[in-house]
Specification:
Elements lengths: L3 E10 L4 E3 L10 E13 L2 E10 L5 E10 L6 H8 L3 H8 L2 H6 L4 E2 L5 E4 L5 H5 L5 E7 L8 H9 L3 H9 L3 E4 L14 E4 L1 H4 L4
Parallel strand pairs: 1-8
Antiparallel strand pairs: 1-7, 2-3, 2-6, 3-4, 4-5, 8-10, 9-10
InterPro entries: DUF1062
Protein name: DUF1062 domain-containing protein
Length: 203
């Protein structure tokens, strides 16, 4: 029976992606940034909630629908308070929410998004000294970052693309569920597996 040691890589964004939309005011920009602010409007007995985006060039605004013609009693009181207080964490939740993106037919530019990996900084040298048969790194992320898994692995282990490709080819590093790493995106629950015995050849 194989002995496995497990770690966690929690991938979190440092900023939000830019919304691709041509500005109708200045016409010099095709990108909007998230203001992290909500707009609430009451009409009769219904409430509309929008998330406000601003043009990167002229700061003109455009609104993204979060709730439309919703009865106040159907909105969680804590969530309503967060809308009213312009809670940043809540804003980010909707920025990265697949349903919100689909309903608003949004397209994002992720090239500006930076991210960080929360982990205990276990290095490949550390792994080479471990006695377990397998070392697993479970990737956790609550955000849709459109981020390649290979980037996270390289950053997590501080290795080059060439080094990663060699280790993949030699079976030093594997990924579950199996995927073509060049195309594989970061998803919650993906596991990166390192084989210490095979790794020693590269150390």
């Amino acid at each position: 029976m194989q002995v496995v040691k497990k770690f966690t890589w929690e991938v979190t964004p440092v900023n939000t992606p830019l919304y691709k939309k041509k500005c109708s005011k200045c016409r010099n920009s095709k990108l909007y940034y998230c203001s992290n602010k909500f707009r609430l409007n009451s009409q009769k007995k219904n409430i509309d909630v929008w998330l406000i985006y601003r043009c990167v060039n002229c700061d003109d605004t455009t609104n993204i629908t979060i709730l439309s013609r919703t009865k106040p009693g159907l909105i969680d009181k804590d969530l309503f308070r967060k809308f009213s207080d312009n809670d940043e964490e809540t804003a980010w939740k909707y920025v990265f929410d697949a349903d919100t993106i689909r309903r608003n037919r949004m397209e994002f530019d992720y090239s500006n998004v930076e991210y960080t990996i929360i982990h205990d900084h276990t290095t490949l040298q550390d792994i080479g000294n471990m006695t377990e048969d397998l070392i697993e790194f479970e990737v956790k992320s609550s955000f849709n970052l459109d981020l390649k898994l290979s980037h996270v692995i390289r950053k997590g282990f501080d290795i080059s693309l060439n080094q990663l490709e060699k280790m993949l080819g030699a079976g030093v590093i594997t990924v579950m569920p199996l995927c073509v790493l060049k195309k594989c995106k970061v998803k919650n629950g993906i596991t990166v597996i390192v084989h210490p015995e095979k790794l020693k050849v590269y150390l």
